[in-house]
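User: structure tokens for this one?
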Amino acid sequence: GIGYGHVGRDLPTALYLGSVGWDVYFTTYGDAVHFARASGFRTYAEPSVGYVTKGGEVTMKGTILSLFRQLNSFFTQLADEYRIIRKEKPDVVLSDSRLSTVLAAKLAGKRIVLLIHELKVLTPIRDPRFKRFVDAIAYRVLSTFWSFSDKVVISDFPPPLTIAEENVVLWWPLRKRDKLVYAGPCGRVTACRKSDHGVVYLRVSGIESERVILNDLYYKTGVLLARDGVRAIMSRGNARGNFASSEFDGKLLVYDWIRDYGSMEINSLVSVAGQTSMAEFVDLGVPFILTPPISHTEHWGIAKSLEKKGIALVLPLRGLTPEQLRDAVEQALADEALRKRAQEYASKAKSYPGDQVLISVITSLAAQHTA
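Assistant:
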């Protein structure tokens, strides 16, 4: 996938399989290449495919204008994937939301596990009728291709717990019981702990152009919180960096990247509402304060879904000030009902272990291949 999120949620599975003797490799692009390599895995870099942003918002015009380049990158990816699969001869191919991987593995005659939550991609088109038409066509075409997979693992909860409600929509080719499984979100944090006396965690994520906007907003919010006596930790979302600072007598800690949560205790999470970010911390039962751009339909939909469940406060990114975000964080910290709902949601979420389900699906499919 385009950023750290997809590789991040695959890492627990990859690390486990590597620890029991599997030879695991990644193919990815963009920021994720360094992230996968830094995590200790052989990694093939491929051309990037993705959306275009401006000022932290997804720009439909910019994305359309880049369409020729995007298509060229996609077909180059497809050729690279096929060549790599033929070279590596994997027993099982895991595609995390990558169509080129599914198609290449199918052409190579390999068993395919698809890990996905965004089955229905929603465009930021403003005209409602045209949007419904484009979204419906894209959904049916993509669902047909996704159905080429031998197993489809939904990295989300079944209803009514579903995080990405607007995206986890199953068309008939994907509804076969022997093909589909709800795993729960993969890549969840276990080392981090919840504590009412913990810190506010300001977690920057997304592609580089998005992180620039969030870093400025979250840092200024962290400063305001520290001045109010609220302890905060901020990750700038840069897996390549080693920056670390302590400000306001240790009330604000800022890191490029937090590699090991260790005994870190948090009482709330501030995030842009990426599905992997939500999944990582949902088991902790802490309230979320979410700042998605409305134009990023996946993040916006996830944020509104969690708001509807009563476990998140949502503030649109455009025009959001540090003062407004600081006030929302302090409101969440004082809202006992919000915290109680987050804890109740977490207790139900633990029934779907995510990573263990994905590992089981992969190893079972590999055993069938060996047999």
